[in-house]
Amino acid sequence: MNITRLRLGAAAAVVTAASLLLAGCAGSADPGTSGAAADPDSLVLALVPSQDQNGLVDTAKPLTDMLTEKLGIPVTGVVAKDYQAAVEAMGAGQAQIGFLPSLQLWQASDKYGAKVVLQTERNGNITYPAQFMTNNPDKYCDDTPVERDGMLFCNGADAMKGPAGLDSITKVKGAKVAMLGPGSPAGYIYPVLALQEAGINTDSDIEKLPVTANDASVLAVYNGDAEVGFSFWDARTIVKKDVPDVGQKVVVFAMTDEIPNDGVALTSDLSPELQQKITDALEEYSSSDEGSKVLQSIYSITKLAPADPASLDVVARAAQQLGLQ
Hints:
This is Phosphate/phosphite/phosphonate ABC transporter substrate-binding protein. It is built from 13 helices and 13 strands.
């Protein structure tokens, strides 16, 4: 499979951004004016497809409804066709708020001057590992799988913090592997880098099965379409309601180094006042019982906290090692 370069030409960026929108353009402010124009009279919130795309906008509706009420202007949620499309939509002024993975937060800031305002916490953690999953534990597990909360782990991956079990990933050679596109830190960048550092040629030593979202990677392993899959920890919980035995049939056997959490970026054309109102509304919402439940249903977020943009540099360096910058 050819690697898609993350940096698109200007014309391609506009086309990609335009393809994102499921609703009309938001407002008329020129993104190049850095606040010189009036704030838009409506906003678009871009979401990336970490799970089933068809249901994500509906799942996020309480969030966009809250922002609409707090800000006094309509906020519409849309799902990008892939991670990179969300960045390019923000760069083209077609979306003003982005819920983005760590690499895309860095790109939106570096390429288009977006402000990274919040990062997520999950159960008190500000980082997470990518996980290697399999339906063939006899091959990949050097010990007996152990169970945590109905999910099976082996090779020390039950510690739920990376790195763990990476000595076992050399066994992936020759396997069919479900993976997301090159823009995904957990679904591509970190696992592919780990394989390459283990001596696996990821172009010739494995058979790639492209998938569009983390839940699809889990299901590919569950259904036997792939022997191994990559995802964020622990994407099995997304599909457990539909396939209750996923934690028994899909075993996590390794975890990568920790990845900075995803978060929220705002386009530079919004006034500082509106940026602050959005930031405050989201942070306050994440601290409420209702908001925490909604954010967990969207991206397993338990809280939104002030961002540390410098923490994103490590993901950019990892992508650069793979030639994705």
